[in-house]
Design brief:
single chain; mainly alpha; about 65% helix; about 0% strand
Length: about 250
């Protein structure tokens, strides 16, 4: 993996001066790569497949840097789908060969990059492709949750509250309802990360969340920042619901 990491760092070096946001993405990528390895190890995959999972994690956000250079944003809605763009970047001039010597693995790696940021993964994937896509998706969500525990980048929603639809969606574990109802209020955006808990795939993912208490930390940030008592009560309730869900999933395979 060391050679692949060096390739990645050499590629991103030219983007670092553009913004501290690019540094954040480099660090995010390193953590996602390691999480992919942890998840793969928990599934007792072969040594080769563990490295493959880490390779997928290493390149999952490869498009973020050029995205920032061109658009000065990481918001796909305001620029370009970074999963699809990542596939283009890896295909251009056979750049993927820097990370993978076996052409037979190219399609699987590209599928993980394309699908890591989608609401749902493609339906026509093989079981092996689904496995690696879900490894990357879990690792990515776990680290995004870590980032949401950093108060400096938290949302400014001191007087806000969830819309009724979003709160009901969270309580009923209805990801479609959450997605369709988002952004009626600023607080609804918070539901994106809270809803992650219902879209993970492996027991180890829930064990990591339980051990690191990312949800407790994130929710406490918003409870402490909020001036809305009703919103605080909902957050406390959601914390209990989420922790109960995590405990129930730690030892169960989906």
């Amino acid at each position: 993996m060391e050679e692949k990491i060096e390739v990645f760092k050499k590629y991103t070096d030219s983007y670092i001066p553009l913004s501290h946001m690019c540094i954040l993405k480099v660090n995010h990528t390193m953590r996602v790569m390691e999480l992919c390895g942890l998840i793969a190890e928990s599934l007792k995959l072969s040594k080769e497949d563990i490295e493959l999972a880490k390779t997928c994690g290493l390149v999952h956000d490869i498009a973020r840097f050029e995205q920032w250079k061109r658009y000065q944003t990481f918001a796909d809605s305001k620029s370009i789908d970074h999963g699809d763009f990542g596939v283009e970047i890896l295909k251009e001039n056979d750049f993927i060969r820097k990370f993978n010597k076996d052409e037979k693995l190219d399609n699987l790696i590209l599928k993980t990059v394309k699908n890591h940021n989608k609401y749902k993964i493609e339906e026509d994937l093989s079981e092996r492709e689904k496995l690696f896509c879900n490894i990357v998706r879990d690792a990515d969500k776990i680290d995004i949750l870590y980032l949401y525990t950093i108060e400096e980048i938290s949302l400014n929603i001191s007087n806000e509250d969830f819309s009724d639809e979003v709160y009901e969606g969270l309580l009923s574990q209805n990801l479609i309802l959450i997605s369709k109802s988002l952004k009626k209020t600023k607080a609804d955006i918070l539901a994106i990360s809270l809803g992650f808990v219902f879209d993970l795939n492996f027991p180890i993912s829930y064990q990591i969340l339980r051990n690191r208490k990312y949800y407790d930390k994130e929710i406490e940030i918003y409870i402490n920042k909020s001036n809305n008592e009703e919103f605080k009560k909902k957050l406390e309730n959601l914390k209990n619901v989420i922790n109960k869900y995590i405990d129930g999933r730690c030892n169960n395979v989906r």
